[in-house]
Amino acid sequence: MQPKIVRVMMVILTGVVIGGCVNLPAVRTYADETAKLSAAFEPMLGASVSSCTNKYAHKKLITSIHFDPVAVEKAGKELCAPIKEENKAISSLNSLLEQYATTMAALADDKLPIYKTETDGLAASFGKLKRPGTEQNLIPKEKLTAIASLGELLGRLATQHKQEEAIRDLLKEEMAVSAIVDALRDYAVLNYQAWLSDEEREMKTLLTSLKQSEKEEPLASRYVANVLFSEKRKVEERTKAVEAFISSTAKLKKAHSELRKKLNVMNDRVLLEKLIEFAEEVKDVRKKVSEAI
Q1: Could you write out the DSSP letters of every residue in 37-93?
Q2: How many domains does the chain fold into?
Q3: PROSITE patterns, per this entry (predicted)?
Q4: How many helices (H) and strands (E) in the chain?
Q5: Of 99, 248, 261, 281, which Cα lies nearest the Cα of 171?
Q6: For 150-173, b where at least 16 C-beta lie within 10 A, e where not — what string?
Q7: What are the angstrom distances between the C-alpha of 23 and each of 4, 162, 195, 270?
Q8: Are 26 and 171 in contact (CB under 8 A)?
Q9: pLDDT in tens, 109-164
Q10: What are phi and psi of 7, to 5 degrees?
Q11: Are the C-beta atoms of residues 167 and 105 closer than 8 Å to each other?
């Protein structure tokens, strides 16, 4: 078992019961890991735009008789601009998860949460989000209500600071947290992972074309092939990062559910295992995102 995870275990096992009988070390661990996962998601949004522009450049490289890199870059940015706009709404949704986590961490440390993000109107904005490539809502209407409720709760907690009661109220928002996490996961799959798959397909087509022209332009073909090989490795690393993020969302939901049920239980082995599994997954996501982006 990794040293950091062992320390997490010891903190929870030896945690002092503060503020009644709430397991504050477990709350703090869950909140901290959720905030880290939220931070790891954000770079994927910018990378999805890069994958879109890269795919366009590769396609033009294959199909254009006269390739103008400046013109292709400009056209690629214009083509992929809608993705950048969609990412802004998803980023706001991710910020709500981050705010939820930092609020819970602050409460576990018996501090008054400080807000930098307005939650008013966010639910209406999230309701406009569509599953990439379709007119279908990314977040079901019934789950939007739960997300709106969570935003209102976070607003109230900014002025009504009752530690134990506030932590319980936050954990009760399990449907809202699950809806946010599911939306982030689905968006990562349908947007970022889909663009990575498209980008990889374009690379394979381009490599096939290079083989056909290798006899006529051996030096240029080898140079481009080397560049594509490097880009292909990056795409593979980014794909692994997305896959790790997808896996971690399931661990987050399991940890949340177990913590909600056993908030007053100290040294519970099942809760401990769920938190450790979640922490390990988050560490893996952060490592892969750091390596890939």
Answers
A1: HHHHHHHHHHHHHHHHHHHHHHHHHHH-SS--HHHHHHHHHHHHHHHHHHHHHHHHH
A2: 1
A3: PROKAR_LIPOPROTEIN
A4: 10, 0
A5: 261
A6: bbebbeebeeeeebbebbebbbeb
A7: 20, 16, 42, 14
A8: no
A9: 876 554 444 555 666 677 778 887 777 888 888 788 888 888 777 776 655 557 88
A10: -65, -40
A11: no
> And the tokens for 22?
């709430």
Of 275, 276, 269, nearest to 1 (Cα)? 276
Q: Distances from the Cα of 49 to the Cαs of 55, 168, 190, 237, in angstroms?
A: 10, 39, 13, 16
Token pair belonging to 33: 């890991």
> What are phi and psi for residue 132, nearest 5 degrees?
-45, 130
Radius of gyration for the chain, computed over Cα atoms and rounded to the nearest angstrom: 23
Q: Do 263 and 168 touch, CB atoms closer than 8 A?
A: yes
Tokens at residue 198, please?
């498209």
Question: How wide is the angle at C-alpha 18 spanned by C-alphas 14 and 23, nearest 5°?
Answer: 60
Q: Are 40 and 281 in contact (CB under 8 A)?
A: no
| Structure tokens given for 21 | 């009988």
Structure tokens at 14: 């030896």
User: Quick one: CA torsion of 118, 120, 123, 125, rounded to 10 degrees?
Assistant: -80
Q: Note whether 147 and 176 are within 8 A (CB).
A: yes
Would you state the structure tokens that stand for residue 86, as one six-digit string?
């969609």
Domain extent, residue 12, equals: 3-292
pLDDT, tens only, 180-224: 999 999 999 988 898 888 888 888 887 887 777 777 777 777 777
* C-beta of residue 122 within 8 angstroms of C-beta of residue 180: no
